[in-house]
Amino acid sequence: MSGHRVILDSNIIIYLSKGLINIEDLFDKYDEFFISIITYMEVMGFQFSNQEEKDIVKGLLNKFEMISINLEIAEIVISIRERKRIKLPDAIILATAKYKNCDLLTRNVRDFSNVEEAVNIIDPLSRGDG
Questions:
Q1: Beta strands at 103-105 and 121-122: parallel, antiparallel or unpaired
Q2: Helix (H) or strand (E) holding 56
Q3: What structural domains does the chain harbor?
Q4: Among candidates 42, 39, 13, 1, which has minimal Cα distance to 130?
């Protein structure tokens, strides 16, 4: 293992649940996995086609440590949004990655473009990493 930490964006959870990203590949690359409480809310608020699909996704989410919003994350969010127009949920996820000092895995790299934070933003499918 590499000793790296990662926070997963909502879309990565969906890709994992559909088998489009191999979770074992992620386990080979990262040692610690996190999701923001925002990711949990976004994913679980999705209209699933059936209860089985919802249960699979919830089980997947439970594999990762969930990070709640605290004052330090809120201050990072404010700083990001003062400098860059970015959706609040994306700013919270990015701030959480910065707070936890980890990479951010997302398929929507563009959502985080031109945001000058010390966070590696990685699309695991475009790099062939997923």
A1: parallel
A2: helix 51-61
A3: 4-122 (3.40.50.1010)
A4: 13
**The token pair that represents 45 in the structure block:** 């608020």
pLDDT tens digits in sequence order for the chain, 130 residues long:
445 899 999 999 988 888 888 888 888 889 999 999 999 999 999 888 889 889 989 999 999 999 999 999 999 999 999 988 899 999 999 999 999 999 999 998 888 877 777 789 999 888 544 4
The set of residues, in sequence order, having a beta carbon less than 8 Å from that of 112 and lying 6+ positions away, is 86, 90, 94, 104, 106, 119, 121
CB atoms closer than 10 angstroms to residue 95: 25
Order the strands of the 4-8 sheet from edge to edge.
Answer: 65-67, 30-36, 4-8, 103-105, 121-122
- Please give the structure tokens belonging to residue 6: 């990662």
Q: Which amino acid is at 3?
A: G
Helix and strand numbers (H, E) in the chain are 6, 5
This prediction has a pTM of 0.87
